[in-house]
Design brief:
Layout: H1 59-79
The structure holds flavin-adenine dinucleotide.
Flavin-adenine dinucleotide (FAD) binds near residues 49 and 57.
């Protein structure tokens, strides 16, 4: 079986969160829950900053998303 790839948009940015859900269909591994904010198509892998599709490409946003991702990872690990 091919290893799962992180989903990218047509420009190569990492797709996260609700943008991974299309017509109610979620990526593999998300059968029982929605992908979290900043979570990629690989459960437990998060993306923040300029690499993320839809980010503002501003330094303040990148830092804020980084801090948010750290908190989300902590929550994820509590349930993993
Ligand atoms: C010329 C210029 C001017 C800008 N001016 C402003 C401004 O005035 N105000 C503003 O808000 N924003 C500005 N920005 C945007 C701002 O710099 C970015 O939004 C911000 O740096 C994004 O932070 P980041 O951590 O997401 O990405 P980055 O700062 O790009 O950090 C990504 C890091 O990952 C490293 N990396 C890449 N690939 C790999 C890999 N495979 N393995 C390990 N490491 C890797 C890179 O070397 C880099 O250090 C400017 C950007 C540029 C280019």
């Amino acid at each position: 079986m091919k290893p799962e790839q992180i989903r990218l948009d047509r420009w190569g940015f990492v797709v996260t969160g609700h943008d991974l859900v299309h017509d109610g269909a979620r990526p593999r591994g998300f059968e029982n829950r929605e992908p979290g904010f900043l979570e990629t198509s690989l459960p437990g892998i998060f993306a923040a900053g300029d690499v993320r599709a839809g980010s503002t490409k501003q330094v303040a946003s990148a830092a804020g998303e980084g801090a948010t991702a750290a908190l989300l990872i902590r929550e994820y690990l509590k349930t993993a």
